[in-house]
Amino acid sequence: VCGQLKWRKRTGWVHNGVHRPESISDHMHRMTLLALLAPSSLRDGAESVDPCRCALMATVHDLAEALVGDIAPADRVTASVKLQLEEDAMHKLVGLLDQAALPSLSLHTSCTVKSCTPGSPSISLEPAEEGILATTVVAQSSPMSRLVFELWQEYAAGTTLTARFVKDLDKFEMLVQADEYERAQDVDLEDFFVRTTNDKFHTTEVRGWVEDLRRDRDRRRAETSTLGKRNRSTSAAEQEQKAQELDGEPRNVAKRSEPMKRTRGESALPCIQPGIFSYGIARQVVSPTTGRLEAVSVVDTTTSPNE
C-alpha cells in the first residue's frame, strides 16, 4: 500500500503546471534527510529534539496519503475533514501492520532503536562497532503499529518541539522544491512563497533557513529580470531594424543633398552625389576622358535595395 506514495504526485505542483512533478515519497525522503540535520541548539526549555526521532516522524508523517492522496488547499477540503480522512487512513494502515506479523527489525546505521516502547522509543546516536550489526529489535506487530500511529498523532497535533520542528521541515522542503522548479522550468510559483510566510514557522533555526532561501531567490529573480529587460530591448531594436528593411528604408540614412541648379533643358534630379537616400540610391556616370558627369540615375530600393 505504501508503494502508492512513489507514484502519487504532489497535488500543488500538478495544479501549477509543473512538468514531471515529484511524488509524495520524494518529498518524504528529503524531509527525512533534513530531519537528521536537527541542530543541537534546538531546545524549548528542558525539551530538546532527537534527530533520529525527527527522522522517524518525517518518515511516517504523510503515510496516510497512500490512501487519501495529497489534499492541497486548492481542493477546498477543510482542515478538520482532512485530519479525519488521514486519521481513518492511518487506522487502516496500522491494521495492516497488525496483520503482517513483522519479523525482527535490524537497523544497520548509527541511529539505533533500543526499544519499541510506544510513544517514546529509546534512540541512540552511538555508532555500532565496525563489522557488527546494530542492535536488533524484535518487535511484535502490535507495538510497532502503535509506534507508527503515535508518531503520526504527535506530528498531527504539533504540540511537542519535535513535531513543530518536523512541521517546519515540511513547509521548508516545499519551498526548496518550489525554488528548484522555478530554476529548472519556466514556471512562476510565487504563490507558495506568499502563502508560506515566516510567521508560519515555529522554530528559529528553520526560520533562518527560510530567510536565506528567500534572499537567494530574490537575488536570482532580480538578476533574471534585468537580463530579461536587456533581451527585450535588444529584441525590440532588431525588430525595428527588420521593419525598416521591409519598408525599404535602410539604416543610417544619409542626409539628402541640396538639389542641383537647373539650366534650360535639364531635368530636375535629386542630387549629383552618390549616397543612400530615403527613397533610393543615386548613381553617377562619369566620363573617363573628360571627367565630367554624364548621367545620374536613381534606383528605387523599395523594389530591390541591392539593385
Q: How is this structure best described in words?
A:
The chain is mainly alpha-helical. The chain is built from ten helices and nine strands. The protein has a three-stranded antiparallel β-sheet with strand order 7-8-9, with no helix packed on it. A two-stranded antiparallel sheet has the order 1-2. Helix 3 (24-35) packs antiparallel against helix 4, helix 4 crosses helix 8 (161-184) and helix 7 crosses helix 8 (161-184). The longest helix is centred in the C-terminal third of the chain and has 43 residues, at 204-246. 19% of the residues are buried. Residues 104-140, 251-282 and 301-307 have low confidence and may be disordered.
Index terms:
single chain, 307 residues, mainly alpha, 3-stranded antiparallel β-sheet, two-stranded antiparallel sheet, 9 strands, 48% helix, disordered C terminus
